Amino acid sequence: MVNGADTVRVRTVLGDIRPDELGVTDAHDHLFLRSPRLPGRELADVVAARAELAAFRAAGGAGVVQWTPYGMGRRAAELVRISRATGVHVVCATGLHQAAHYDDERLTALRGDGLARLFVSELTEGIGESGARAGLVKVAGGFHALDAHARWTAKAAAEAHHATGAPVTVHLEMDVLDLLCGELAVPPHRVILGHLNRSPDPVVHRQAARSGCYLAFDGPSRAHHATDWRMPGAVRALAEAGFADRLLLGGDTVTAGARSVDGGPGMPYLLRRVRPRLEAELGAEAVDLILTANPARAFATDWR
After folding, report:
1. 28 labeled part of a ligand binding site
2. Which of 18, 77, 97, 209 would be 243's cystine partner, CB 3.0–4.6 Å?
3. Are strands 15-17 and 9-12 parallel, antiparallel or unpaired?
4. CB under 8 Å to 107, separation ≥6 — which residues?
5. Residue 178 and residue 180: Cα distance in Å, rounded?
6. 225 is in an annotated binding site
7. Phi and psi dihedrals of 168, rounded to 5?
8. Strand, coil or helix: what is 215?
9. Is 252 annotated as a binding residue?
């Protein structure tokens, strides 16, 4: 068990499980997603989502962590159904993305302490009528600076963490990481930093690794993000520097065309192509650590 505590669990949409039950895990992906920034490219097809999850299972996958936060079409009730149908563990997020993904009316309704209360409620009581509880808080800032929205959401995420123990995920935004783990006192090992592949700077990678947070390489096969051909070297460099036990892998499928069932790489690509490529670079034992043991630690907590 993680930390030797029998009470430590991963919170999935079907209930809490032991960390060692999570299995081979896609640590950052999306089965459902809707945003005004992606008009006409929503992930909303239930049949396709179920087929994608089944394809991941057939490739050897056992767990998927969906980072889609509040107000972006999570479809928690459908996550419950397709998780049960496919036998894949699904971890669902609460949280809030950048302001551009929401209308002003929705954000205004959450001002004051409403956002933190929402996060805690979804982590402990459940998401709407779905019966599913969230298992993490997802937030985001700007790449170069923190605006008022990012500070507001990070503060609410920290409050939710301190109230529940929930892990917090964030994009590769060092200012948000510094705020969470500094002023807001979230322990670094409770933070998962995503999109390291989008900024293939080894100095930034080592800086993030030294903080003690988990580091997710996600979004394979996106050539415009310099992922596939740079990622193995970046992962190897971090592993050789002693950070192999902090690395995670995810697909970050954000449009319908990126699903494997619609001709894209999708979730199975992690195991079909990325896994053997990394095994050639690092060896099978290290890749097993990244796909299985690391997510079991990263997304498990002693829920309060």
Report:
1. yes
2. 209
3. antiparallel
4. 99, 149
5. 6
6. no
7. -120, 130
8. strand
9. yes
- Span of 8-17, 164-173, 197-206 with lowest mean pLDDT: 197-206
How far is it, in rounded angstroms, from Cα 293 to Cα 21? 10
Could you give the domains of the chain?
2-301 (3.20.20.140)
The helix (run of H) or strand (run of E) holding residue 249 is: strand 247-250
Distance CA 94, CA 117 (A): 11
Q: Establish whether 171 is an annotated binding residue.
A: yes
Alpha helices in the chain (DSSP H): 46-58, 76-86, 104-108, 114-124, 148-164, 174-181, 202-210, 231-238, 269, 275-282, 284-288, 294-298
Please write the tens of the pLDDT for every residue from 172-216.
788 999 999 999 999 999 999 998 887 778 999 999 999 999 999
Instruction: Collapse the DSSP code of 93 into the 3-class scheme (helix H, G, I; strand E, B; otherwise coil) and give the result.
Output: strand
- Would you say 155 is a known binding-site residue? no
Q: Which residues contact 104 (CB under 8 A, 6 or more apart)?
A: none
Instruction: Identify whether the C-beta of residue 208 lies closer than 8 Å to the C-beta of residue 193.
Output: yes
161 marked as part of a ligand binding site: no
What number of other Cβ atoms are within 10 A of residue 284's Cβ? 12
| Proportion of the chain above pLDDT 70, given as a percent | 95
Other C-beta atoms lying within 10 Å of the C-beta of residue 42: 16
Question: Which residues have CB under 8 Å from 219's CB, separation 6+?
Answer: 195, 197, 198, 225, 227, 250, 251, 252
Kindly list the distances between the CA atom of residue 87 and the CA atoms of 14, 28, 120, 137, 179, in Å, as whole numbers in the listed order: 10, 18, 27, 24, 37
The answer to whether 271 touches 88, Cβ cutoff 8 Å, is no
Cα Rg, the chain, nearest whole Å: 17
